[in-house]
Design goal:
homohexamer, alpha+beta, Ribosomal Protein S5, domain 2, 4-stranded antiparallel β-sheet, 6 helices, 9 strands, globular
Chain lengths: 241, 241, 241, 241, 241, 241
């Protein structure tokens, strides 16, 4: 049996909270905490669509996500993207993943002519920043949508389902749920799973960096993820109630 | 029953070939063709490691992959990365995926002090450019390694297994193998699977852009992918014999 | 007599607080609030000096400050610096000002071989973000220094004095203290004053954008600033006690 | 009593001249010399306003200033901005200061639909390049405006006053006027003052890099600056007569 | 008498071929081979003109050329332009030369409202990549034009003549034709000559890097070039027949 | 017979002068005037060689040239390179040409370990800015070399010859010398010729943008250029005497 750094069971989530109102100028915002991982998630509305939609004449609205590690979120200070002159590959992948995950549960037609911006800025990084970002972004976006509906800017709720995400991995040959940083660093396989509140997959990314994994490993990781996401969906529901 | 644009069965690959020697100045090179998708894959060796390895004092060697769509590879001319001033997110994701996939079957210690560069330039794009790139890159890299071993630059073969990749998707609610461009464009779910010649997973990415998928969809896509990769591994083996 | 939007007296500060621990991975951090203006101020230590110091053989240590408006800090979402590709002129000016202000009360020799990084990220902007940043940065840096002294990384406290900053302006021909955003937007003259806890000037910047001001205006603005900074210095002292 | 490198009195300006016609293709141009500091100041008109004015629907015209140190203006050759890839912080601050200073004495409404470009390129740098730039830019701009009025492009003179600038500093505990490079390098406090011909302040920036200053220091520096600017305004008037 | 690395006569071309269809998604494409130098030349049509033509109201169409060395085309791997962040000077010169050379034999009025894009990507570099590019680009462009005329997109052939290019040089004091890489590296003088099929000059660039040349050297190089271009024009004609 | 805008004979140069001392901080500097074309040419010495020489272990010294059009040098203000973010192709070509031209008459071994920087900034552009730059740069560089020899920094004069440049063109079917802007704009063929004081070619670039030229045209342009360069070499000699 495996002993985790914080004494959790293999299938146990860290304490998860979504604290509303961290950024009052945003239409919706939460501080999403998965254990020591803390992410500012904010949703704002821009009353125009991206250039490529206008150029191509695409109808409906859009959702764009941006993600950054604040310089003091990591144990060694991380240089800002602007100091390095460009986004690193990891950041690009994460913000594309956040965007796809939220669009999968959005009816973009109901955002006609508008862009919903999702910003995720990591205040403290301890593993699972992308899954905390997706799970928190849904709460912030839902809050923003309610505000726009009250203000009459949007007529119907464009969300068709809720969405949440969790990491799973193979650590010392055991499948574990919700990896913290030191587990993530040593895991042979790392998977991120995004699912809806109704139990359908949105995205599944499973990677063995300098390692490989068997079909059985995959099956057990997926089962764990499903359990974790069901719990997160419940927390989201309570916060939004 | 589904009718595919090129009359293939749902579980049938396009004609796949790897033609060696397309770029004679590279240590290993092939033109990888998956139907009309044609990718130049080349492997070259640089006798130093990336700066981050030197700075952090990491031992062993490295493999870096780069990917580009040549401007005339798409139906509408695609502007070069340098004209746009930066890599787009899709390109960054693909070149990171190619790199991880090859490193998963490489013992980097046996490349001590060296970087193996993998370049994948798409000559014609008709769906599946990333899977053709990974499958062709393995062949080019293996050829290059043989050349370095003959020349005494490398003592032992660093490859621990072969690697290949294929796309699968849900198209008109049917799982299909090796999507061409018009299938890819319309598929509700798109997955890319990377596996070794011995049948272990390296990477699994399954995405429902503006859609979701069930556990059953996932299972049937994985089964198809496994069938396809077994066939590609066989073709790789014959080319390298 | 002037009526301010929040009913303050002309010489009255907004409620000012410095909440410690907002970013636990930083050596020192506070959430600095000047009314609705909220800035994350964090101090981290890097055990090397900037390249220019090494190249020129300059002795001692250094302090570098960076500043950003988080995208959701303003009423209309502000694009990230990295999306625009470069820092705007205002950001460059502010981060240079924060750096100079803190270095003025630091004995850099006592930071030999090290760089103290100051990061100021604005969570909510309502006027005075640069003065909140300087005032909060001092508290965060002082906390960080204490931690390094306890850990034995630094032998003596390099701070020679405390430092704080406040804005003053001419608004409807009256000098006022600590301008909020709507006052700042309409003020004919805008000044930022940085002073030490012992009452010496560190920096004085007074600007009449599309306007000019008399020597009398200047004198009354300086007097107001002095009063405000004395109060802020007291709050800093209590937080650090 | 202080002895200055060029034997000037503490309150004495260097020889100041503005030689017209250095760049004949510009509408107005002067070579502004403050002792050995020599700056090419040129004014040109563009018959459109910046994008942000068009987008925001702002009425009137605009004035934009750009500043550079030519590579051979300093004792050690300075790399061009384009070689470094971006403007350094000092350059950004100076060109913003030049722009604000000239706009403070311009009625922008009278430049309706036009942008007046001010270019300041330093041919030789020996301290005070920003104050020579502002003082010379006013002369060049005024010459250009006269030309446009003669040509009927502008109906009324948009200038409401003249503007000039000078540096002052605390050097060996004495306030001195118009610092040359070796004084500037060693001064504990450095201030730049911009005033109109009628004696009103436009901008006051006083900085103690790694030092602080007292209210008395500030008062004596301001008095010196006022004396210097009065003299420069007289020289400007004679050149323009 | 001179002995060339590949035993050619001083006035002898390398084997020259133009293989059509290398990039099937382009309107016209050839693999141009001058000995071991191999260049992918592709022509595509964009149904708009460059921004500067629209802004300035210039009539007619345009032709733009781009050139790159693929990373594996050289003996040591060459970093991609996008990795270096900008085009190097040599690349800029070559793509400008290719563009001017083709525009010299094009009646741009007959391309009204369209841009013909020429892309030249070097697969293997062994000297003379720019001359192979120009000569191959003409063939690819002519093929594309025929396709557009058949499709009715263009009414009349805009080409007024054919165009081809060759290098000549002074090597061991002897004028030689069509330099391969090791000759080019050691030649005292290097000239590139672009001529039409009817024997008129389009461009002549003769450079003595760290060397000079006499009028007699120039005359004999021009005579050789003329001989070579006549032969290449014949090959082009046969391929296009 | 042709009538030129300034009534010159077809084979007549504009008034040409080189005024020393325009940039006193440079080791050598002249204002080079070819009629209304005025270029600041400055030479400075850096006591290190470019990175590529150090990396490749190349012996000797180097000469690097940079060129810019100052924004007010053209009739319509030209945006600075840094505002556009990159050098345009024309600038890259010109600065490479200036560098090659001067290196052709330099024995780089005698600059061991040093880089001679040549900066050419155009104050007024009226055709022939590159030929004025080369001709003036030689004078500035020669002055700088003398200064370094007097100071003992360089032992022997590295110059092996002088160098000058002139433009020629076909204008209304007549070959003309030293084109001013309006001739240059309308000329069918434009050639730039660089020659040494002893009558050898350094560089010959002849271009027919959207036009072609005959061998006879080329011969008559070369003869004219030779005449012009002989005259410029004489002027250079007198200035340096």
């Amino acid at each position: 049996m495996i002993i985790r750094p914080d004494n959790r069971e293999a299938d146990e989530l860290r304490p998860i909270t979504f604290q509303p109102g961290i950024a009052p100028h945003a239409a919706g915002s939460v501080l999403a905490c998965f254990g020591n991982t803390r992410v500012i998630c904010a949703a704002t509305l821009e009353e125009k669509v991206p250039t490529w939609m206008r150029v191509q004449g695409v109808k409906g609205g859009w959702l764009t996500a941006e993600y950054s590690l604040l310089p003091y979120s990591t144990l060694d200070r991380k240089a800002r993207d602007i100091s390095r002159g460009k986004l690193d590959g990891r950041t690009v992948e994460i913000q594309r993943l956040i965007g796809r995950s939220l669009r999968a549960v959005l009816n973009l037609e109901k955002l006609e002519g508008m862009t919903l911006w999702i910003d995720c800025d990591v205040l403290q990084a301890d593993g699972g920043t992308r899954t905390a970002s997706i799970s928190g972004a849904y709460v912030a976006a839902k809050m923003a949508i309610r505000k726009f509906m009250e203000a009459g800017k949007i007529k119907e709720d464009p969300f068709t389902d809720s969405v949440a995400a969790i990491s799973v991995g193979m650590y010392q040959e055991t499948p574990i749920l919700d990896l913290c940083y030191i587990e993530d660093k040593d895991a042979a396989v790392d998977a991120n799973v995004v699912m809806t509140g109704t139990g359908r997959f949105v995205e599944l990314q499973s990677t063995g960096e300098e390692a490989t994994f068997s079909p059985e490993d995959l099956a057990s990781m997926i089962a764990l993820a499903k359990k974790g996401i069901t719990e997160i969906s419940g927390i989201q529901k309570r916060v939004l109630a």
